[in-house]
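Issue 218. Parser rejects a valid record. Input:
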Amino acid sequence: MKQTVARGEPALVQSRLPLPLLRRGKVREVYEVDADHLLLVASDRVSAFDVVMREPVPRKGAVLTQLSAFWFERLAPVFPSHYLTARSADILERIPSLQGYASEIAGRTMLVRRSVPVPFECVVRGYLSGSAWAEYREGGTLAGEPLPAGLAESDRLELPLFSPATKAESGHDTNVTFETVAAALGRPLAEQLRQASFALYQAGGDHAAQCGIIIADTKFEFGTDAGGNLQLIDELLTPDSSRFWPADRYAPGRPQPSFDKQPLRDYLALLKTAGEWNGEAPPPPLPAEVVDATSRRYLEAFRLITGRELGADS
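Output the parser choked on:
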């Protein structure tokens, strides 16, 4: 289902493909291709404060898909993933039933190997921000573990921290300790998850730094394939899963500008402060300029990281 929003650009609110739909999340639809493969479709839906907005953000889904594809290909030597292709021509060739849906899948669809997800998000934090800053400010800890005293908001941590979290179907994820993960999954797998997360964060951060971007934190998701092998899944180092800060504007001691849905969050925060929205569904209507500004943030992140403009299949 397409919808025209800011500046008349079409946006995909919800895909409807002739494949079995396995699940629909806040942003993505997941379709079953066969016993071994899935098709991920990133819509242009956008959520903030755990509420999905009525208005989609044009090209957001394509940015999420194509930026993930860029990273999956670039970081393949660091750790294996479920990624096969995000090129529409390849997908249409492999799945003939989608021939009449070329415009709907263009740029926003990824073919992946099927896997069983690990039930924890693997978060790596290089800077003190977001929920980590909130917890530290309250008790000097992160996921219950002490951090050095005297840190300020957005400070760079001496070493990146592995800060896993539970996966929540709705509402906020909950930070947990490494020992919680080890107790649930076994220490060898927990160690493998931590080491892989650090390696991916380092490699991704090194590239982003060359592009003038700080990756303050990010979350990785992993799964196991039919042979029990661990692989990277879902999305990878996108504005939805990471905090991207412009390096030339970094200044600790305050929140940082970011390449994500910050214009949307800022607008909604003003409404909440003014008592015009209670932070729950239904969401308030969004002005076209807020939608447009949010879209431009996503596109700028893609351009800076990949070195090219977003095309149909980039």
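Fixed in the parser; the record now loads. The radius of gyration is 19 Å.
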